[in-house]
Amino acid sequence: MQVDPRVDGCGRPATLLIEAVGTRGLEVQAPTVVERQPVLGGTCLNWGCIPTKALLRSAEILHFAQHAQDYGLKLAGTIEARANQAGAYVSCLR
After folding, report:
1. What is the pTM of this model?
2. Domain ranges of the chain
3. What is the average pLDDT across 62-69?
C-alpha cells in the first residue's frame, strides 16, 4: 500500500521533506496552515538565523568596502549601512 504524505508547516524542514518526497514520485497533499502569528514562518525565518545572517553579511561587506585599499582597490562614493534592508530581505522570503 502506498500512501501520499501530508506536510503541515511551512518552515525549512517542511520544504526539505517536500523536495525529498517529490524526488520519489509521490505527491504531497497541500498543507493546512493555521497561523496565529502576524507573519508566516518561524523563529529562523523571522527573528533568528536568516535576519542574523543577513546583518552579518552586510557588516562583512561594509568592512571590506571600508578597507578596500588594503586589498588594492580604490572605491569612490559614499558607503551607507541601512539596517532595515535585512527586514526587507526576510519579507521577500516569506
Report:
1. 0.53
2. 1-34, 40-93
3. 92
